[in-house]
């Protein structure tokens, strides 16, 4: 896992309280080029639209590396 994803995974665990299995599923599918990890989480119903917005707000925060 690359460093930007490590920070995203930490945010998903700590702030959104996502389960490790949900995060693993999203990582696997995003690596298979099925889309950005946040969209994979939403597409599979693992986050709500509100949580998806929080993820993208967090990703847009200054100082964070961009994650696809």
From TrEMBL:
Pfam families: DUF2949
Highest rank taxon of the organism: Bacteria
Protein's recorded name: DUF2949 domain-containing protein
Organism: Prochlorothrix hollandica PCC 9006 = CALU 1027
Lineage, uppermost ranks: Bacteria, Bacillati, Cyanobacteriota, Cyanophyceae, Prochlorotrichales
